[in-house]
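User: Reviewer 2 asked us to show a designed sequence for the structure in our supplementary figure. I'm pasting the structure tokens here. Could you produce the per-position amino acids so we can include them in the response letter?
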């Protein structure tokens, strides 16, 4: 069933509709956050999000499908908000590169980079966008670099970061 896009689209739509119903029933903002045990937690999260926040397990997560069909939890939140009649900005927030990302890097900047790779059609393996720069992420970065005629080193420095987020190259020099 993972290879059946029509099935995925139907399940995705039903999941968004159910989530919208629950948000309406309990007066929840699908794009909002709540405080839980001193942590800011998205109103809508998956097992993987919950696991990363130390709140649950990482079993049976949706990213094995999401990676295949270029979806993220941010897509879910936006689609649920739209079903509730909320205005959803299509403007993409482009994070600024604060460090070079490489194998074993972790954090929100890694997660943003991974989500962008998925949006662009790159497969990050079974863990998807998880904020951990592992072997699958490194392979996807190298494929992206190859596809975009960038220096292929598996690291996300200024040139790769700019190419990922559609910014103009600022410097053509290579190390």
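Assistant: Here is a per-position design you can include in the supplement:
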């Amino acid at each position: 069933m993972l290879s059946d896009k029509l099935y995925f689209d139907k399940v995705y739509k039903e999941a968004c509709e159910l989530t919208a119903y629950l948000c309406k029933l309990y007066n929840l903002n699908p794009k909002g956050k709540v405080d839980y045990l001193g942590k800011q937690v998205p109103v809508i999260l998956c097992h993987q999000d919950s696991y990363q926040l130390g709140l649950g397990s990482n079993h049976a997560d949706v990213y094995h499908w999401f990676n295949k069909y270029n979806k993220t939890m941010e897509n879910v939140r936006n689609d649920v908000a739209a079903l509730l009649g909320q205005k959803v900005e299509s403007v993409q927030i482009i994070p600024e590169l604060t460090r070079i990302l490489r194998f074993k890097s972790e954090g929100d900047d890694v997660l943003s980079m991974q989500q962008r790779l998925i949006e662009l059609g790159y497969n990050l393996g079974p863990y998807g966008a998880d904020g951990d720069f592992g072997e699958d992420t490194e392979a996807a970065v190298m494929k992206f670099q190859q596809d975009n005629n960038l220096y292929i080193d598996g690291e996300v420095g200024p040139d790769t970061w700019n190419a990922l987020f559609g910014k103009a190259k600022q410097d053509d020099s290579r190390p």
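For the response letter, you might also mention the following. DSSP finds seven helices and two strands in the chain. The helical segments are 5-25, 47-52, 63-66, 73-83, 108-119, 135-147, 158-164.
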